[in-house]
Amino acid sequence: MAERMNLDRKARSKGSQPVVFESETVDALAGLVLALLGEVVVLKDRLDANERLLKAADLHGPADIDTFAPDDEARAHRAAYRQGIYDRVLGSARDKLMPEALADQHDYEGVLDAVTRD
């Protein structure tokens, strides 16, 4: 992983970076979205390859995965994992771009917690 990060840093162009959108912030967010899209495409390709290999080995294939119903433990694990990803990926932008909304949300959660304790 560290090697990949070093390679990514080397692969970036040097010099001035033009601002394509109305601000550097929007440009940075667009870059983040495009980088995440690239990662999703790679993951989808790898998942497709695994499904095809499993089908070729007569284990299971895409149709089995499409009909898979996770149990309660799997659903809870996925929910926690999803929340962690949302927090890691969106948290930085949320904290920087919407601090007032975040403060309001914390206030709301505090009131909700106080009310539900009684």
Question: What is the fold's blueprint, element by element?
Answer:
Elements: H1 2-11, H2 24-56, H3 62-66, H4 72-97, H5 99-117
Arithmetic mean of pLDDT: 77
Q: Report how far the terminal alpha carbons are from each other.
A: 48 Å
Q: The biggest beta sheet, please?
A: none
CA-based gyration radius: 21 Å
Description:
- With 118 residues, the protein is an all-alpha fold.
- The protein folds into two domains: 21-68, no CATH class; 70-118, no CATH class.
- Helices cover 79% and strands 0% of the residues.
- The protein contains five helices and no strands.
- It is flat and about 55 Å long.
- The model has no long low-confidence stretch (mean pLDDT 77).
List keywords for this structure.
single chain; 118 residues; mainly alpha; 2 domains
Write a compact overview of the structure shown.
By secondary structure, the protein is mainly α. It has 5 helices and no strands.
